[in-house]
Amino acid sequence: MYMIIILFFFSLFFSLFFSLFFSLFLSFFFRNGSMGSAYINSLPLVQSHMYG
């Protein structure tokens, strides 16, 4: 029973960490111009993969 709760909190923390990581990546690529637009185009794909 406790294992399920621990796994739930771990997955929640992992998704939060990944969203933070992707936002940092976005701000980094924004300085490189063309790479930033390519990342923005792939962002919905990443979100649908994570939460789909």
Short recap of the structure:
This protein has helices at residues 2-30, 34-51. By secondary structure, it is mainly α. The two termini are 26 Å apart.
Structure description:
The protein is mainly alpha-helical. It has one domain. 90% of the residues lie in helices and 0% in strands.
Features:
about 50 residues, mainly alpha, 2 helices, about 90% helix, about 0% strand, elongated, transmembrane, membrane
Low-confidence stretches: none
Number of domains: 1
Strand content: under 5%
Order of SSEs: HH
The secondary structure category is mainly alpha
- Helicity range: over 70%
Radius of gyration, whole Å: 14 Å
**Strand runs, count:** 0
Global outline: elongated
Total of helices: 2
Average pLDDT across residues?
73
Ends distance: 26 Å
* Largest sheet composition: none
Transmembrane segments: 6-30
Keywords: Membrane, Transmembrane, Transmembrane helix
Produce the secondary structure layout.
Blueprint (H helix, E strand, L loop, with lengths): L1 H29 L3 H18 L1
Helix pairs in contact: 1-2
